[in-house]
Design a protein that fits this description.
single chain, mainly alpha, Growth Hormone, Chain: A, 17 helices, 75% helix, globular
């Protein structure tokens, strides 16, 4: 396993672009939670905090495919440079709006502005791996697993860091750090031009036909997984608050991500030869692991239960990414991966809002029905979809005829 990851990281230019992409992705685990903490610490309810957070996530989701298409056509560097600058402005305005008690919808508008410009480096870096490993497909699944592991590193460190900075240093500190990491990381990623996939090499019909019959159900299932992520994040904060251990929320979320990190590392050693079958079965087990959370009544049980759910997160996402990569033409890969990211983000928004409402009306324990049901729906969609009857070779695009 160590040797396999080592081979991937010995790819020329890989350490620089993968580390810069990692730094830019810290906003994934910091901004939504940071907004919830900022709003509630300023006297807002969990419901209102969830809505502001949802505004950020929904805007990011709406613009992700557009960023993907622009990156395919214009190149990743100009998109990352522009997005990195704008996201910092949007997050700064969000902090000002919340702390200055601006009336609705201004906090939501500011959060949406930040969301619109979030750099989609998670999708970009996977496309870059497809480009640099175009002559060594054997390592591509391991590269995707490596990026999934780094995603979980983000989700291990990010919640703890944003909770500490917001509650122990200063209320704006958590979002300020997230903004700095996103901007500087995306700019550093944009500077790695030697390994960047060439822009505009494919256009029109030569870019290939998007396999919507496969991509659509994956995007729908991603929405269900997004609801799971968004609701669980809010519910963990609320659950620890009910126990009088609010400061433990970041640690619990880090444990959740740790389980996924462990599983993602193992998955990297055993790349899926059949990502379709693996996606089906990992989604089933992921759904089942949420059942114990309905019975959790202490911090210890909560930690144990979320760790178990985390063990199935990375394998599910790795299988989904590998399946998309196996059927989408090279000229549409960034766009396709952005669509799956959009599905996740679209789900996170209502997940945060719905779970926040359940907490306000009932309690956090009951709220865990939200991620359980959303995971069940995602699983049903995956099992209903038909197995792809063909695959393409996205690493070897057809020459342009335009």
């Amino acid at each position: 396993m160590r040797t396999t990851f080592g081979r991937v990281l010995r790819t020329p230019g890989a350490p620089a672009f993968t580390i810069s992409a990692l730094v830019s992705r810290f906003q994934l685990s910091m901004v939504a939670l940071g907004i919830v903490l900022l709003v509630t610490e300023n006297g807002g309810s969990y419901g209102s905090a969830g809505l502001v957070s949802a505004s950020f996530i929904a805007a990011a989701a709406a613009c992700a495919p557009l960023q993907g298409r622009l990156a395919d056509r214009l190149g990743q560097a100009p998109v990352c440079l522009a997005a990195g600058a704008l996201v910092a402005v949007g997050l700064a305005m969000t902090v000002v709006a919340v702390q200055s008690d601006w009336d609705a919808p201004w906090p939501h508008v500011c959060a949406a502005l930040a969301g619109v410009s979030v750099p989609q480096t998670g999708s970009f870096v996977r496309v870059r791996w497809s480009h640099v490993l175009r002559d060594d497909r054997e390592l591509l699944g391991t590269a995707f697993a490596w990026e999934a592991v780094l995603d979980e590193v983000v989700f291990v460190v990010g919640p703890v860091l944003v909770t500490f900075l917001t509650l122990q240093v200063a209320l704006p500190a958590g979002l300020a750090f997230a903004a700095a990491a996103t901007t500087l990381g995306s700019w550093a990623y944009a500077a790695q031009r030697r390994t960047a996939p060439p822009p505009g090499t494919l256009s029109g019909s030569a870019r290939g036909i998007m396999p919507w019959s496969v991509l659509t159900p994956i995007v729908v299932a991603s929405v269900g997984l997004g609801v799971l992520f968004g609701s669980t994040e809010v519910l963990v904060v609320a659950f620890t608050d009910e126990l009088g251990r609010r400061g433990s929320a970041g640690l619990v979320l880090a444990v959740w991500a740790s389980g996924s990190l462990v599983a993602g590392t193992v998955a990297g050693a055993f790349p899926a030869s059949d990502p379709f079958a693996r996606l089906r079965w990992t989604s089933v087990v992921l759904t089942a692991t949420f059942l114990p959370l309905l019975l959790a009544d202490s911090l210890v049980l909560l930690v144990a239960a979320v760790f178990a759910t985390g063990l199935m997160v990375a394998p599910t996402l790795i299988a989904a990414t590998a399946l998309v990569e196996s059927v989408v033409p090279a000229g549409r890969l960034t766009e396709a991966l952005s669509w799956t990211s959009t599905g996740l983000a679209v789900g996170v928004a209502p997940g945060a809002a719905i779970s926040g409402h359940v907490v306000d009306v009932i309690d956090a324990s009951t709220g865990f029905l939200v991620p359980l049901l959303s995971a069940g729906i995602a699983t049903a969609v995956v099992w209903i979809m038909k197995r792809p009857d063909r695959t393409v070779s996205p690493l070897v695009p057809s020459p342009s005829t335009d």
